[in-house]
């Protein structure tokens, strides 16, 4: 590195002062134990505490377990919070609150396994407020003290609403994708003690240094299982590794599978407390009356309208689930035609349209809403009296989560589900759930369940069990699409090239599809990835979805966001190409083309052995100028690049007498070419300290 003595001296001085400040910060002790045990709670014997837990179906694992509370007055929460409970007509704490508050207020790390709607939000929210109040005030440039990570924008907004009920002097920012970044950035810059965020948008702001996590001492991972299901694990890991190790961490999840257990072991202290409400086996809420009706597919809409004649009132809320966007739209139109006010929310609706529909549903202007599973993720709407499964989900976990949106907070609810011949694979598990909850099972449903049991006896039966559900999606293709697929299969058998109709100028037909012009720059969020995956899954198994956002000024808007979808088979990719190319998405016309993994790559795509270009070295430009570069620049770049794989070396090269964008050149040498390729795709066009990064491959 060539630098003048003055610049070197200045950089060394700056580096030393920053390191001194950083070290001072890390040894700063913070308070996290605020629990004042009530005398009545202290008097409880071990046997009495265990008897109470059993009565509330609470299971606790850990060491030095605090006794549960039985009343709000025993919680050691401030009086103003207790007044809000009385105003909201809350009579007693929920099971997760009975054990969760003593643990969280004691400063312990907590894992809470409980369903959505169990009262978990204020279980972590109220101790957070006491924690933040006890810390030193924020200084200029400080980030938040408490951080909540949630999988969806809807859940983030719901936590924000609860926060607003109990806040006093505390400030918060709600950060999520799908909305303009400007207002959120201004909130962060103004200084907030609490940040409620979806991981993707927060990671973007951290990448541009809009905020930092140096002050975070209270971390909440809400619906951790959903974050893992949505593929947010690496993003969460990138965020959590920036936090101090002695923070307090609370994690809440509806399931306790191996992935969630691994996450808890990674992020929580060894003396953490695990609190489970309900049985180890996933069961339905017993406050929900379940009705499952076996019916023909063609008669569902008419049958539903007949049911509405008996149950519909303007003072109740009805949440209806459909499997696809098209089905949700079709059903909504049928309900409107029958003079029943309804609205639809699904992936093709803009965020503004979704928000308007939800607000109308909450305030009663539209008492019925039709939603897909993807669009309904994270929704927590009070006073839903009926959940209707117009289309059954594909697995029993989704069924339980769906009907769990009614019967919350001690109230009772009802669910109505339409079971058809296509849902046969669900019958066995569905009957078990109904029996466990003491619900009636139709004789026809028993027949389906018995057939499934018989099929499960043989491997051949297991292999063919889900054929109907797969075939249902493939039958939707237009006749000419089927003819093209037939031609492709014939050509492949004869070792001839595929028909020109599905050729792309971008490269040979492959199992990877590239979609463009679906959203504009800055509109990418985690919902987009899930919407694309949901849609593409109709045409075959999707291995992965990868989104590349290019920020270069010379790139046209329709080219700025490129979505790569890897299918398990080439045939599925071809079907998706024919179905999606030219289709409307959010008012835009989708451009689809086949993508050759040999050209660049997405992670885990293997270049052809004959391909001589296997780059290991990446050149990054326009990240800083000579005057703005410091000793932290190299460390920042190396740390970021290590997220894509092992980095062998990182070199910063300064050049004078050239344009500012070219003055600082950073060479990163990776151990594997796959890591280099992924870093290229991820970093090119990304914002860094207000600049747009340019990346290209360099000779090693």
UniProtKB/TrEMBL annotation:
Pfam family membership, one: Helicase_C
Short sequence motif Q motif: positions: 70-98
EC number: 3.6.4.13
InterPro entries per UniProt: DEAD/DEAH_box_helicase_dom, Helicase_ATP-bd, Helicase_C-like, Nucleotide-bd_a/b_plait_sf, P-loop_NTPase, RBD_domain_sf, RNA-helicase_DEAD-box_CS, RNA_helicase_DEAD_Q_motif
Recorded superkingdom: Eukaryota
Domain DEAD-box RNA helicase Q: 70-98
Helicase ATP-binding domain residues: 101-274
Molecular function (Gene Ontology), one example: translation initiation factor activity
Compartment(s) where it occurs, according to its Swiss-Prot or TrEMBL record: Nucleus
Domain called Helicase C-terminal: residue spans: 306-449
Entry keyword Nucleus: yes
UniProt keyword list: ATP-binding, Helicase, Hydrolase, Initiation factor, mRNA processing, mRNA splicing, Nucleotide-binding, Nucleus, Protein biosynthesis, RNA-binding
Single Gene Ontology BP annotation: mRNA processing
Gene Ontology CC terms: nucleus
Keyword Protein biosynthesis: yes
Family: Belongs to the DEAD box helicase family. eIF4A subfamily.
PANTHER family named in the record: ATP-DEPENDENT RNA HELICASE DBP3 (PTHR47958)
Complex and partners: eIF4F is a multi-subunit complex, the composition of which varies with external and internal environmental conditions. It is composed of at least EIF4A, EIF4E and EIF4G.
Function: ATP-dependent RNA helicase which is a subunit of the eIF4F complex involved in cap recognition and is required for mRNA binding to ribosome. In the current model of translation initiation, eIF4A unwinds RNA secondary structures in the 5'-UTR of mRNAs which is necessary to allow efficient binding of the small ribosomal subunit, and subsequent scanning for the initiator codon.
Protein name: Probable eukaryotic initiation factor 4A
Native source species: Eutreptiella gymnastica
């Amino acid at each position: 590195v060539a630098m003048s003595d003055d610049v070197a001296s200045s950089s060394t001085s700056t580096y030393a002062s920053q390191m001194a400040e950083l070290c001072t910060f890390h040894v700063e002790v913070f308070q996290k134990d605020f629990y004042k045990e009530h005398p009545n709670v202290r008097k409880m014997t071990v046997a009495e505490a265990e008897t109470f837990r059993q009565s509330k179906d609470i299971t606790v694992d850990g060491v030095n377990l605090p006794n549960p509370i039985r009343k709000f007055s025993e919680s050691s929460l401030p009086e103003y919070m207790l007044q809000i409970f009385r105003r909201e007509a809350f009579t007693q704490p929920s099971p997760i609150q009975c054990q969760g508050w003593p643990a969280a207020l004691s400063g312990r790390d907590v894992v809470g396994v409980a369903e959505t709607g169990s009262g978990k939000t204020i279980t972590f929210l109220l101790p957070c407020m006491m924690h933040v109040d006890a810390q030193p005030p924020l200084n200029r440039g400080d980030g938040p003290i408490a951080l909540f990570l949630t999988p969806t924008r809807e859940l983030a907004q719901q936590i924000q609403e609860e926060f607003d009920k109990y806040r006093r002097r505390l400030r918060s920012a709600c950060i999520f994708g799908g909305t303009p970044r400007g207002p959120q950035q201004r909130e962060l810059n103004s200084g907030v003690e609490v940040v409620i965020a979806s991981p993707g948008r927060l990671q973007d702001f951290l990448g541009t240094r809009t905020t930092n996590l140096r002050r975070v001492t209270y971390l909440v991972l809400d619906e951790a299982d959903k974050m893992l299901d949505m593929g947010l694990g690496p993003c969460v890991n990138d965020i959590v590794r920036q936090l101090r190790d002695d923070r307090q961490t609370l994690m809440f999840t509806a399931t306790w599978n191996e992935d969630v257990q691994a996450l808890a072991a990674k992020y929580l202290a060894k003396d953490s407390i695990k609190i489970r409400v309900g049985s180890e086996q996933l069961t339905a809420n017993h406050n929900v009356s379940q009705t499952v009706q076996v019916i023909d597919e063609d008669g569902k809409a008419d049958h539903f309208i007949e049911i509405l004649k008996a149950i519909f009132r303007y003072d109740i809320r009805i949440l209806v689930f459909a499997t696809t966007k098209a089905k949700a739209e079709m059903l909504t139109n049928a309900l409107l035609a029958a003079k029943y006010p309804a609205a639809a929310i699904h992936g093709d609706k803009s965020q503004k349209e979704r928000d308007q529909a939800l607000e109308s549903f909450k305030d009663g202007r539209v008492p019925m809403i039709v939603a897909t599973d993807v669009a309904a993720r994270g929704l927590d709407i009070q006073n839903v009296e009926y959940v209707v499964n117009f289309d059954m989900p594909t697995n029993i976990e989704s069924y339980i989560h769906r009907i769990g949106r009614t019967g919350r907070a001690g109230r009772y609810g009802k669910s109505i589900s339409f079971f058809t011949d296509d849902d046969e694979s669900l019958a066995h598990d569905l009957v078990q759930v109904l029996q466990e909850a003491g619900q009636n099972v139709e004789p026809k449903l028993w027949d389906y369940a018995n057939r499934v049991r018989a099929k499960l006896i043989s491997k051949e039966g297991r292999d063919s069990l889900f054929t109907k559900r797969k075939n249902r999606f493939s039958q939707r293709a237009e006749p000419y699409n089927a003819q093209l697929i037939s031609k492709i299969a014939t050509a492949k058998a004869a070792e001839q090239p595929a028909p020109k109709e599905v050729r792309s100028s971008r490269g040979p037909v492959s199992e990877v599809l590239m979609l463009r012009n679906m959203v504009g720059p800055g509109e990418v969020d985690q919902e987009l990835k899930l919407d694309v995956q949901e849609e593409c899954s109709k045409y075959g198994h999707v291995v992965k979805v990868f989104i590349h956002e290019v920020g270069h000024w010379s790139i046209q808007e329709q080219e700025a966001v490129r979505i790569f979808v890897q299918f398990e088979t080439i045939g599925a990719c071809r079907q998706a190409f024919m179905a999606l190319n030219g289709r409307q998405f959010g008012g835009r016309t989708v451009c689809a083309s086949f993508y050759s993994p040999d050209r660049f790559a997405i992670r885990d795509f293997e270049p052809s052995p004959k391909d001589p270009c296997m780059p290991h070295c990446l050149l990054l430009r326009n990240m800083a100028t000579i005057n703005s570069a410091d000793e932290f620049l190299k460390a920042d770049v190396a740390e970021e690049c290590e997220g894509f794989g092992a980095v062998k070396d990182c070199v910063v090269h300064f050049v004078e007498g050239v344009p500012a964008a070219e003055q600082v050149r950073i060479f990163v040498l990776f151990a594997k070419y796959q890591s280099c390729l992924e870093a290229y795709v991820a970093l090119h066009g990304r914002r860094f300290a207000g600049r747009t990064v340019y990346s290209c491959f360099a000779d090693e």
